[in-house]
């Protein structure tokens, strides 16, 4: 679990200033197709993460995608889709925080706290 936190810390500075789109608009059918034939548990986790992204549940989306990324047996396309989703969530979260969104600022602080444990 600690390496997931380190991965998030490494990812955040890279994407903090990138993109201004909502998370759900940067992930499309190409990424969803990567999970079309995935085992039920993996597809369910992807769908859960996508739903969290769509509702701007930054913490839920981030943690779900991190947990999914740690699953064994993912295809290259699935890993790429998860990585892109994580970047999209981070972009949306930091964009919202830069606009003063209290929920996004709280999410950033909570995710940082999780990485310090």
Secondary structure: elements and pairs:
Elements (H helix, E strand, L loop, with lengths): L1 H14 L7 H4 L2 H5 L6 H15 L3 H12 L6 H23 L3 H15 L1
Q: How much helix, percentage-wise, in residues?
A: over 70%
Count of β-strands: 0
Strand-and-helix sequence, N→C?
HHHHHHH
Roughly what is the average pLDDT, rounded to an integer? 83
Shape: globular
Structural class: mainly alpha
- Sheet of most strands: none
Poorly predicted regions are: 6-10, 13-25
Structural domain count:
1
Number of helices: 7
Tell me which oligomeric state these chains represent.
single chain
Give the N-to-C terminal Cα separation: 10 Å
Radius of gyration: 13 Å
Question: What percent strand?
Answer: under 5%
Notes on the protein architecture:
The chain is mainly α and 117 residues long. The chain has one domain. It is built from seven helices and no strands. The protein starts with a helix and ends with a helix.
Tags for this model:
117 residues; mainly alpha
Quick structural overview:
This protein is an all-alpha fold and about 120 residues long.
